[in-house]
Amino acid sequence: MIKPKLWLASLLIAGVAVSCDSPQKSTRVTADEGDNRVTITDAEAEVYLDKIKLPENFKIEVWAADVPNARSLAKSDNGVIFVGNRQGDKVFALLDEDGDGKADYRYTLAEDLNMPNGVAFKNGDLYVAEVSRVLRFRDIENTLANPSFEVLFDQYPTDKHHGWKFIAFGPDDKLYIPVGAPCNICNPEKEIYASITRIDVDAENIEPEVFAHGVRNTVGFDWHPESEELWFTDNGRDMMGDDIPDCELNHAPQKGMHFGYPFWHAGDVKDPEFGSEGKGKEDYTKPKVNLGAHVAPLGMRFYTGDMFPSEFNNTIFLAKHGSWNRSKKVGYNVTTVSLNGTDQIDSHEVFAEGWLDDATQEVWGRPVDVLQLEDGSLLVSDDMANCIYRISYQN
Ligand SMILES: [Ca+2]
Ligand SMILES: [Ca+2]
């Protein structure tokens, strides 16, 4: 248990650190040893960081090794990092207790869960999305060593195909929860499939509301820091060859838009099976960026930190997990998309690469999600190398 006075003191220290604009704005959360805690300071990750190419003056390190199947990321107000699983069944919390820029402890918050890929933090509580359930861990920063959860909602579809979820709270304080298409390509009758829904976590009777339609499988989204409008990645359908259709980066400024699936892909690729069941391509919202076929874009966030050069302000960082069935592998990188204003695309380029060796086609890691730390550095999760990287900048 955390001693209440220490906790209060640590909050005050954190407050002072923020107001002084200290470069080392690290977490001050402390927690006792629990049966669910392991020390990871000295854990080794099987990584080849000398192969990673980054723009000048950027550096990549392992922030936390020994994080099995590290997937979606979320951060508490005081810097605890939460990590979901897709192939595993656990949710982890990572703590850099001494503030030296590397995680020290890993807590297992729950196990035996059903693809608990989605994590989000709000008002002291951690939310976890499994395939059909949303769980809530109350006051998680103070219960890392003895966590418990309640089932907030358990009525999402149980299909495992595209059933793992990315979740995040919007500027409207609603929790956004996608429901993937339960197939590679199909036209499900129920409106909730191939959508992004949102719920009010404080409602007495939670009822998902469909926010966006025609979304095959989004595993990453964020809201523009100025416009507060939703942007999301979407994974294109398979079995149309190596080069079509592209995966997508989309913009959903309001509720009720339809993004084409299963009728149209990547704006103007008519689906050979379902295209004739839909309307014309102009009746659906096209992607803002076609990201390449099979690249598997997952997590994405707008950069708002102070550490990177100012040209990165409000730039989208997105993780391309990489192709699984393309004859020549693509993706396996972290990409930036920069905007002119709040809705025009300026550029789309690779930021970090080297997890894939293009010549030998060998892969040693796969980026999944990105998350900015208080100091402006960027975490990247990797579900193949089972670790979390930190990318920092020093002029
Ligand atoms: Ca540390
Ligand atoms: Ca689309």
TrEMBL record:
Keywords in alphabetical order = Signal
- What is the protein name stated in its UniProt record? Sorbosone dehydrogenase family protein
Pinpoint the Glucose/Sorbosone dehydrogenase domain residues.
Answer: 132-319
- Any keyword rRNA processing? no
Query: Coiled-coil annotation: which residues?
Result: none
Q: Which domain of life is it from?
A: Bacteria
Signal peptide position in this chain?
A: 1-19
> PANTHER family from the xrefs?
BLL0591 PROTEIN, HEDGEHOG-INTERACTING PROTEIN
